[in-house]
Amino acid sequence: MSAIITPPPTPIVLPTKFDLLTENPVYKPFRYPWAYEAWLTQQRVHWLPEEVPLADDVKDWHKNLTAGERNLLTQIFRFFTQADVEVNNCYMKHYSQVFKPTEVLMMLSAFSNIETVHIAA
Hints:
Elements: H1 33-44, H2 55-63, H3 67-98, H4 102-120
């Protein structure tokens, strides 16, 4: 009868190069604690569009603004919404493809998420 030989576990190999373009093989220790702090700060101030009271603004929109003023504000709102779409695209499609440390990706995803809140608002 032959013995079953089990290979030794593969050790975690830390990268020899530590930069923003090299991913972490582990969650901690953080190489960029400032990125984690930015993620945490963003999480603590998270909000949703329905949490913002707009009743007075809606009343003003209908009763106190001229058609020209409403049109101007509509165009400004569209501009800001589209800008938020573009910023979100940069976080999701560009920055997250380049920067690799976990804590940096956490930060970028939190920033991206709040852009989606801005878009929906």
